[in-house]
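Hi all, posting the design record for the shared folder.

TITLE: backbone redesign
STEP: 1 of 1
STRUCTURE INPUT:
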């Protein structure tokens, strides 16, 4: 009875509404930092702030899997690809949320450009689709997101990101189901090669402002520990990352006071 009871709790308190899709963040490093990731440059920034991928100089790819609250039906599988070029940096992101008869999909195509030594900008075109068991076909819609990143000095970087400002959504049989707009602003400070702190504020349409913070600590070479806190409601995250050559493995756990743990893992390849 664990899974049906947890799904009922999710629906009753509005944490995850299966009738309306959401923009799911991906990447175990980001999750370990409570998704306070709007200013950090990483291949998984295709899900957070595409402007920061302009700082990536090599082709990168990643795979991600999350089992939300340990429920197989609420699993999330995602991938990211970042391709730098002389004309700018291109990114591709995609995910599938759900299994069996209920599924959500997203495909994003990003273009990021380094406008100056310290200033990056990007735009991403997205397509979302959603399939219900009672319908023979999937519903879909297109939207966009855009971001800016500014490196004030060698230690402090700031980021701003807007998702779906036009508030587009699905044209369902019962009417339009709009996906909310999401506004994020924040920054991170790199104290040294060992310590990074990050913080951001997120405003989602019809919800209060959420503050997210994270700490990344690297006591030994190629190994990183992460901790994060966000709210409200207050949620805690933690994670660990290890790099071997050009391959990085990250593991993260999120904890919700009512629903329990959410484990996730990602693999990243820098070629």
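Okay, here is what came back for every position:
SEQUENCE:
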């Amino acid at each position: 009875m664990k899974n049906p009871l947890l799904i009922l709790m999710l629906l009753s308190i509005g944490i995850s509404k299966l009738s309306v899709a959401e923009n799911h963040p991906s990447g175990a490093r980001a999750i370990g930092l409570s998704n306070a990731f709007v200013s950090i440059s990483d291949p998984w920034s295709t899900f957070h702030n595409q402007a920061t991928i302009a700082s990536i100089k090599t082709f990168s790819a990643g795979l991600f899997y999350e089992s939300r609250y340990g429920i197989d039906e609420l699993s999330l599988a995602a991938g990211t690809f970042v391709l730098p070029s002389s004309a700018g940096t291109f990114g591709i992101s995609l995910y599938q949320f759900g299994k069996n008869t209920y599924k959500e999909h997203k495909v994003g195509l990003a273009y990021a450009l380094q406008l100056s030594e310290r200033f990056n900008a990007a735009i991403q075109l997205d397509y979302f689709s959603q399939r219900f068991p009672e319908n023979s076909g999937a519903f879909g819609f297109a939207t966009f997101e855009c971001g800016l990143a500014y490196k004030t000095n060698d230690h402090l970087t700031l980021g701003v990101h807007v998702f779906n400002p036009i508030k587009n959504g699905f044209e369902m049989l019962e009417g339009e189901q709009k996906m909310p707009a999401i506004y994020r602003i924040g920054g991170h400070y790199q104290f040294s090669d060992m310590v990074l702190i990050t913080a951001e504020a997120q405003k989602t349409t019809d919800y209060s402002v959420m503050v997210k913070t994270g700490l990344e600590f690297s006591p030994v070479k190629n190994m990183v520990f992460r901790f994060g806190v966000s709210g409200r409601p207050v949620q805690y995250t933690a994670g660990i990352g290890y790099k071997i050559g050009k391959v990085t493995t990250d593991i993260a756990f999120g904890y919700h006071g009512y629903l329990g743990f959410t484990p996730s893992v990602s693999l990243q390849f820098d070629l």
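COMMENT: The longest strand covers residues 119-131.
Let me know if anyone wants the other runs.
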